[in-house]
Specification:
about 65% helix, Rhomboid-like fold
Length: about 300
């Protein structure tokens, strides 16, 4: 195992989010998806009992959650750009999406922190919507039936999370106790193959929508490695919105003192020893993710070495 692999393991152990943690982004995504699924399924069962037909459910209920390919229809229900990515109505597809989201999402969350998972999920959904609508208008066979085309399900968002997690840590391995583990990129290939196979008989615009989600995950990490964080504005907007309802909450600003981690103690004033803090380690690990281990200074390498030994 190389140095960077050891530090990935270290961060996974230090930053692992628990199910009961209030700011667990993965848990929130999981809960929202499950709630949408249960509500839709309850309504579907009720309609099936009364009408004896699932067609009524799709025409009367799913229609209001489904993203339409037609821009005129979209203008009448713009909220579907967001609602469709949480609305799985098929049990097996919902279980599959949640399983893959949990696997890839936990890796992405534990390695990049708690503020990037939801933006990646949303970017994947938005990109999937754009690609879907564009393809519906450009592909002749889809354009002919554009009024009946719709997109429903979390697939585009989940595939964005999968690609982002794979790019962040391509050497990460699941089930390490089994012959060294399975590399994350292999599971990503399997997931993409299963996903594409499940929609092979459907309209080409749906396939392109899922491709759009994958592209969003790729682009997010590519920009992140170039010091452009696409999640920052989303998190700032969220904090601003939440603070509107809490006027007594003061904004916390980092000052220079809070970013200095030195303790001279009884030593010479010109001799400084770095204190190992979780924030300092996280900053160094983020630097590894963005620039690589070779770009660390001697002091940063020493901090990580001592942190992994503690």
């Amino acid at each position: 195992m190389g140095e960077s692999d050891r530090y990935i393991d270290y961060k996974m152990q230090k930053k692992r989010f628990t199910l009961g943690q209030p700011d667990n982004a993965l848990m929130w995504l999981f809960v929202i998806n499950v709630i949408f699924f249960l509500v839709l399924q309850t309504i579907k069962v009720a309609i099936d009992v009364n009408d004896r037909s699932s067609a009524a459910f799709y025409a009367q209920v799913a229609y209001w959650f489904q993203l339409p390919a037609d821009l005129v229809s979209l203008s009448k229900k713009p909220w579907t750009v967001l609602s469709y990515m949480f609305s799985d109505v098929d049990l097996m597809r919902a279980l599959s999406n949640m399983l893959w989201l949990w696997g890839f999402g936990s890796v992405l969350q534990n390695l990049t922190g708690n503020k990037k998972l939801i933006p990646v999920y949303l970017y994947g959904g938005f990109a999937g919507a754009i690609f879907f609508i564009t393809a519906a208008y450009l592909i002749p066979t889809n354009k002919a039936v554009i009024n009946s085309l719709g997109l429903l399900g979390a697939n585009a968002s989940v595939i964005a999370v999968a690609i982002a997690a794979t790019m962040i840590a391509p050497d990460y391995r699941f089930f390490r106790h089994i012959r060294g583990g399975i590399p994350i990129w292999i599971l990503t290939v399997i997931y993409v193959a299963i996903d594409l196979g499940s929609i092979a008989q459907g309209p080409a615009s749906i396939l392109i929508a899922h491709t759009g989600g994958a592209f969003a995950g790729f682009l997010f990490v590519k920009l992140l490695k170039n010091n452009m964080d696409g999640s920052e504005w989303m998190n700032n907007f969220y904090n601003w919105f939440i603070n509107l309802f809490n006027p007594n909450k003061k904004e916390v600003k980092n000052n220079v003192k809070e970013r200095v981690f030195y303790n001279i103690g009884s030593k010479s004033p010109y001799s400084k020893t770095s204190i190992i803090t979780e924030q300092r380690v996280d900053e160094i690990l983020d630097k590894i993710n963005q620039k690589g281990y070779d770009h660390l200074t001697k002091e940063e390498k020493d901090i990580l070495k001592r942190a992994s030994e503690d």
